[in-house]
Automatic annotation (TrEMBL), chain A:
Keyword Ribosomal protein part of the UniProt annotation: no
Name used for this protein in its record: Sugar ABC transporter permease
Ranges that cross the membrane: 12-34, 79-100, 112-132, 163-185, 212-236, 280-300
Classification via InterPro entries: ABC_transporter_permease, MetI-like, MetI-like_sf
Species of the source: Bosea vaviloviae
Cell compartment(s), UniProt: Cell membrane
Main location: membrane
Family in the record: Belongs to the binding-protein-dependent transport system permease family.
Pfam families linked to this entry: BPD_transp_1
ABC transmembrane type-1 domain ranges (all copies): 75-296
Signal sequence bounds: none
From TrEMBL, chain B:
Organism name: Bosea vaviloviae
Cellular component per GO, a single term: periplasmic space
SUPFAM superfamilies: Periplasmic binding protein-like II
Signal peptide: 1-28
Protein name stated in the entry: Sugar ABC transporter substrate-binding protein
Principal localisation: periplasm
Location of this chain's protein in the cell: Periplasm
InterPro entries according to UniProt: Bact_solute-bd_prot1 (IPR050490), SBP (IPR006059)
Protein family: Belongs to the bacterial solute-binding protein 1 family.
Length: 307, 418
């Protein structure tokens, strides 16, 4: 082996290291995704695959009203969820991070407290918020009644005007610790001198936040936005657990994740299994998310400033 | 890539075969696996299977229960992967089709399962494939949509089960005036809206309406349907407070705790309520007719059946078990232990509650959407559930609900295409 050049040896070594993870990815990620794509081109009856139908399933999703209507409604809800969480969850997380970064009294406790809900499972969070929002003995309406605001007490999850907002709020409560932590880490990378000199020059808190912290924490914003976008369009657990597979009441909390599940796997008490249309919707959703996430990452990267 | 996957699967199959072979050597007995979504019936089934094992030495049955909401997905995935159970409980109607049509279940007939003769035709129809008319499972229970009531609360407030719709409204008014919630029902769980319709409105809809739907003489814009929904709309003030935010579990608790006098639901609720609160004294009555003296109707459907996996290698033993599950001897055990109505001819129930339900079943229509319109999308159930939920929230009218359901079903149901 002494005649083997060091370049060749290097190549063999790299191949040796790269092959196992590539193989695992191929078997457990690429193959299932491609096979799910292929399902979308067939007619299905339950789990039995029938004739090849080309793009028919995809076309159906846009042309047949009983597919198109719930899909467009759900897509609209996903957009609302993304916008609302961007403000409440990521925006709130940014402000919380700034608050913690300034190390107020008891900041170590607050840092843990803000992050604590993130480690809870969605099942627990859903159950907790269902109890808190219960129309007749939930703590939320209890507090409103006690404060003399009984007229504001609503069946939050049963009212089509408030149900989606209630889910968004519960989600933000669950996850706000995550963007907070990411922003906090980003802020801690900003050299102290920069902030101190700005303060010496008489910059106000808002100016420091807008002109120094926000631009310098841009990499954190890129990460949290991209993850939030993916999370908002993959949203499933919380609506499923709190308002059910149909997005009760009458579709007001319906999101694409629920539509996909109902299409593909059916709903024991209402609908039938259909892997063809379900896979077609999953394929479109995947392509949409991959395209937007890539474009957003490239765009957001450009505005990041290297420290 | 595919070659690697294939090689891996061959290796996995070899290991499974090896382990399977070893266990085969270890025990001379045939062990059958039995899958169900009725986890809560584990103890009862263990007693049933002991009786079966005693009569059939050499066969053992292992009970495996799964979460009801995902049972259909788990079962069909396992069957598609060739790893399903030997014997299983399957659901009926549209859900049965998705499993029977791909050929996962063994067809049952007079030759291989003479016990099929023990069932009425409507029960066998629930477990048949419409395409070939063959039976794929032996039905285990029928369920009846009706009103369950708390007899002690009724007695305490001096009211009796209503003989007409107006009497029902008067009864609700009287109970509410005394601070008792008349109906525990809420509408937050979508499928509850379908149960409410059939539990309360079957008599107003009528058997003739069902026949006219099937012959194409009527659709859901029919005055009988729209009129019945209009009546339901008048009753919503007597549901649980804030009913739009009350889900199935909350309304069950409300009734089981004795805070509400009635529950519009299925006969399957009775055993569940008694389990939650053994001191409850319960009665049942059928949906009230428009005028006193007219016949009152309940709505009936078959829950599901027992089926044999077409690919099991223990066919003989599996068939033996399913045939036993079709005997009057088993039907009597099932009705006695689980308080279910067995569809097997000649089974006599001992429990008064079951006897009462069997009596009501003598005048019944079908649980409409499940029995006739849950085979294709958009299913009648999806349309009815969302429509009624919206109507009871005050955001649509009975006539609009009827039109919406008709429009949806007409996309595939020829009698509605005009």
């Amino acid at each position: 082996m002494s005649d083997m050049g060091s370049a060749t040896r290097h190549r063999v070594w790299v191949t040796f290291l790269v092959t196992p993870p590539l193989a695992v990815m191929a078997v457990f990620v690429v193959y299932p995704i491609l096979s799910a794509f292929s399902y979308a081109f067939f007619a299905w009856h339950g789990l039995s695959r029938e004739a090849f139908v080309g793009l028919e399933n995809f076309v159906d999703l846009f042309t047949k009203p009983h597919y198109a209507q719930p899909i467009m409604r759900a897509f609209g809800h996903n957009l609302i969820v993304l916008a609302a969480l961007l403000v409440v969850q990521n925006g709130g997380g940014f402000l919380l991070a700034w608050f913690l970064h300034r190390e107020p009294f008891g900041f170590r406790f607050h840092r843990v407290a803000v992050f604590l809900p993130v480690i809870l499972s969605s099942v627990i969070v859903a159950f907790l918020w269902k109890l808190l929002l219960h129309p007749n003995f939930g703590a939320v309406n209890g507090a409103l009644n006690a404060a003399g605001l009984g007229s504001l007490a609503l069946p939050w999850l049963g009212d089509s005007r408030t149900a989606l907002a209630a889910l968004i709020f519960a989600n933000a409560w669950h996850w706000i610790g995550f963007p907070t932590l990411v922003f906090l880490a980003g802020m801690q990378r900003i050299p102290r001198e920069v902030l101190e000199s700005a303060e010496l020059d008489g910059a106000s808190q808002i100016q420091v936040l807008r002109r120094i912290v926000w631009p310098l924490a841009a990499p954190s914003a890129t990460v949290t936005f991209t993850l939030l976008f993916i999370g908002a369009f993959n949203w499933f657990e919380l609506p499923y657990l709190m308002t059910g597979l149909e997005g009760s009441p009458f579709g007001s909390t319906d999101v694409l994740g629920l539509v996909f599940y109902r299409l593909a796997f059916g709903n024991q008490s209402a609908s039938v299994q259909d892997f063809g249309h379900g896979s077609a919707l999953a394929t479109l959703l995947f392509l949409f998310m991959a395209a937007v996430a890539t474009a957003a990452t490239i765009r957001l990267r450009r505005r990041e400033i290297a420290l | 890539m595919i070659a690697i996957a294939r090689r891996l699967s061959i290796a996995a199959a070899a290991i499974v075969a090896l382990v399977g072979g070893l266990s085969g050597i270890a025990s001379a007995q045939t062990e059958l696996t039995f899958w169900t979504w009725r986890q809560e019936d584990r103890a009862a089934y263990q007693t049933f299977f002991q009786a079966f094992e005693k009569a059939n030495p050499g066969i053992k049955v292992r009970f495996e229960g799964f979460e009801p909401a995902n049972y259909q997905t788990i079962l069909s995935t396992a069957l598609a992967g060739g790893r399903g159970p030997d014997v299983m409980q399957v659901r009926a109607y549209g859900n049965l089709e998705s499993i029977a049509r791909p050929g996962y279940l063994m067809a049952l007939d007079k030759a291989n399962a003479p016990e099929t003769a023990n069932f009425p035709d409507s029960a066998l129809a629930a477990e048949s494939l419409r395409a070939d008319g063959k039976v794929y499972a032996l039905p285990f229970a029928s369920q009846t949509m009706l009103v369950v009531y708390n007899t002690e609360l009724f007695a305490k407030h001096g009211v009796t089960p209503p003989g007409s719709w107006d009497e029902l409204v008067a009864l609700c008014k009287a109970l509410k005036a005394k601070g008792v919630t008349p109906f525990a029902n809420g509408t937050a769980t979508a499928w509850q809206n379908e149960t409410i319709v059939q539990a309360l409105l079957s008599s107003l809809l009528g058997k003739e309406f069902e026949a006219d739907l099937l012959s194409g003489k009527a659709d859901f814009t029919d005055p009988r349907f729209v009129g019945a929904l209009t009546k339901l709309n008048e009753l919503k003030d007597y549901f649980a407070p804030n009913f739009s935010g009350i889900d199935y579990a909350s309304s069950q608790q409300l009734f089981a705790a004795g805070s509400a006098a009635m529950f519009a639901g299925g006969s399957y609720e009775v055993a569940a309520f008694q389990k939650q609160n053994p001191r409850l004294k319960l009665g049942v009555f059928a949906s009230p007719p428009a005028k006193a003296g007219e016949p009152s109707l309940v709505a009936v459907f078959y829950d599901g059946g027992y089926a044999v996996n077409a690919r099991t290698d223990k066919k003989e033993a599996a068939l033996k078990l399913v045939r036993w599950l079709g005997t009057p001897e088993f039907g009597t055990m099932l009705s006695g232990t689980l308080q279910n109505v067995s569809p097997i001819k000649g089974v006599k129930a001992e429990a008064p509650a079951v006897q009462q339900v069997m009596k009501l079943n003598e005048n019944a229509m079908s649980y409409l959407m499940l029995v006739h319109f849950r085979y294709q999308e958009p299913s009648g159930s999806v349309l009815l559930q969302a429509g009624v939920q919206k109507m009871l929230a005050g955001q649509t009218t009975p006539a609009e609900v009827g039109a919406e359901i008709t429009k949806g079903i007409a996309t595939y149901y020829t009698p509605f295409k005009k």
